[in-house]
Amino acid sequence: GGALAQTLPAEAGLQVPAGEVAPLQAALARVLSDAALRARLAAGARSAAVRLPTWPAQAARFAAVLEGVE
Prior knowledge:
This protein is mainly α. The protein has helices at about 5, 20-35, 35-50, 55-70. It is built from four helices and no strands.
């Protein structure tokens, strides 16, 4: 479960059903055997990462929310 399906861009990783061994094995085999796929996923992950807030920026946002809670 979790929110992975909603938060992981398709170009940044492969998704497999939770608790399903065979799809995970197949996905790992694809990544290990396909250099072009690895490069695409790495580039997608880097691209997704730069769009995320930094840890300090996110901590400041969270602190601002907490300050507004009584």
